[in-house]
UniProtKB/TrEMBL annotation:
It comes from the Bacteria. Residues 75-109 are annotated as: Disordered. This is Uncharacterized protein. It comes from Streptomyces roseus.
Length: 109
């Protein structure tokens, strides 16, 4: 039996304080949102990850002192600090992104 992995969705972008929408997996109302803004209960997403090991997965970046590990499916994955997802930074000035910002990589490999 595979180990059950709990998602860490601590970022405020996973919570819609204005309204509940039906979960895409169970249909029950939820204020939670996935990385793609889909309404989904965290438990439903965890169950989906655990029950679908053949789905495309995300992994942490390999490092000398830490092994690479699975952080969930591409659809429902972890917010942990070691994922390959881009980090969000505070906006310090209002301007459109340009070539000086580099490529906009929304989904890290």
């Amino acid at each position: 039996m595979a180990a059950y992995q709990y998602l860490n969705w601590g970022d405020a972008s996973h919570y819609d304080r204005t309204r509940d929408l039906p979960c895409v997996l169970c249909g029950g109302p939820t204020p939670l949102r996935s990385h793609a803004s889909e309404p989904v209960h965290k438990v439903c997403a965890e169950d989906r990850n655990a029950g679908n090991p053949d789905q495309p997965r995300r992994y942490t970046l390999p490092a000398r002192d830490k092994p690479q590990y699975d952080v969930g499916t591409w659809r429902f994955h972890n917010d942990g600090p070691n994922t390959a997802a881009p980090r969000r930074t505070a906006v310090t000035e209002l301007r459109p992104p340009g070539p000086q910002d580099g490529p906009l990589d929304l989904f890290a490999a």
